Amino acid sequence: MDIYLVTGNKHKRLEFQRHMNGELEVHFADVDLIEIQSNDIVKINEHKVKCAHEILSKDTSGESQARKKLVITDDTGLYMECLGSFPGPYIKWMHKSVGSQGIVDVATKFQNNKCYAICVYSVYDGKEVYSFEGVTQGTITGPRGSTDFGWDNIFSPEGCSKTFSEMSFEDKQESSPRFKAFLQLKARDVMFLTEDQDPEELKKEANEKARRRRQSFEDKQESSPRFKAFLQLKGTITGPRGSTDFGWDNIFSPEGCSKTFSEMSFEDKQESSPRFKAFLQLKARDVMFLTEDQDPEELKKEANEKWATGEAEEANALWRQALKECIKYSMRGFPTKKNTDMQLTLRLNLSLYHFKKKEFHECINQCDIILEGVADLDGLLNRYEVEVTQSEVTPMNGMAAPATLPAHTEETDASTREKKEQDTCVLRRDTLVKLFLRRAYSYLMLQEFEKCRENLQLVKRIDQGNAELMNLERKEQVERVDYAKRQKQLYRRMCNASGVLPESKGKG
């Protein structure tokens, strides 16, 4: 499978290559694409990647090519607080119209330079689209530094005095929304979507390696006199002779030897000891997986303790480390149910952390990953919809404790028991409600009202009488009306801003 990044910007190409660090061969294509008009940057980029895939999948005669292609596109948006999150995905056109200084002048005119930047990578293999968002809070400043990379010369990440243009590549990586999105793309999908690195294939390969390792050990046992002795463990009862410190060592002599184990040196005993045989197998097969890693359970336990004492940053770091350890085990071909449940729990905790920090994009991202792990979400919602007999209240402050899934419902039917043996998860109804409410509130704070309502509708299906649901519905209606009014006011003010944009003429 060929991998293509679609961009005509040489700076984007160079940055992507440095981020990839030679781990995968990526081709670059400059394709002329028509962008849809939307305030949703993800929707824009997903439309772009599908169009690009269609173009790149055909040869010069217009016929479809047999070789599969994985196509990647990206888009960025700059959301200014003083303009009610405008221009967002339209930053390219605003920058082209008024330039870097014009954007700075707008922020100065309104005496509010707060903003945030979003970068989205979308990946399409011809079947499914995967999108990854990186978000960075910051301020409009400058302009300072090179003008080679869009609006980098007017954006300073939160807590930093330099613009992106003034930073080194390494410094920029620390806070770049593009690099944040890239890390998600690299960690979750690109490695899996190539032909030779499908998750199922990785699992098969790991199992095959384990089988070959066992077979190699068994073959060695058959051909080596030393290992043959291990296999048969033949000997005689004799003595007792030698030290009595080690059980029955003073009465056992291995076949062909006149000494008991107690009379032998350490080195001689190794040649025929059943204990040494067991140790060699342990070392050959499992110790390599256990020594280099940290225990996710211990990390999670420590993180929960930190969270309980108000040490949120330390808890976040430990939850992330625990998640890394779980993912490593999965990559080695051990995606056990316990591992899957642990990852769900950790991601739920991470979504809580980002929710409390008001990092709503990151909160939504963690919730989305959890829901992607449910094999048949709509089927699960249908089942809960039927099972609901009375409403349960899920207050917002109920999200303040770290998750302690079991993430599975206790069902007695045979089909559910069978599912529990598979690498899928069945989230509890109250966990689903919590996830949907958390997403709805996050979308509301981001003023993405349609997505907020979609999540509220999902809550309605399985917990219609939920008190927080009703509160959020009222809040969403008020916020939506207020947002529309503010947008009109901001538009009028922007049109009348002297020296920045042309003055409005006439009425309306």
Describe the protein.
Helix 6 crosses helix 7, helix 16 runs antiparallel to helix 17 and helix 17 runs antiparallel to helix 18. Helix 1 links the parallel strand 1 and strand 2. Strands 1, 2, 3, 4, 5, 6 and 7 form a 7-stranded mixed β-sheet that branches. The protein has a two-stranded antiparallel sheet with strand order 8-9. It is an alpha+beta fold. 53% of the residues lie in helices and 11% in strands. One of its GO terms (biological process) is nucleoside triphosphate catabolic process. Belongs to the HAM1 NTPase family. One of its GO terms (molecular function) is nucleoside triphosphate diphosphatase activity.
What is the name of the CATH architecture of the largest domain? Alpha Horseshoe
Low-confidence stretches are: 220-231, 284-291, 390-400, 404-424, 503-508
Q: What fold name goes in the CATH topology slot of the largest domain? A: Serine Threonine Protein Phosphatase 5, Tetratricopeptide repeat
Instruction: State the CATH class of the largest domain.
Output: Mainly Alpha
What is the number of independent domains? 3
Mean pLDDT: 77
Task: Give the C-alpha Rg.
Answer: 30 Å
Bin the helical content: 40-55%
How many strand units? Answer: 9
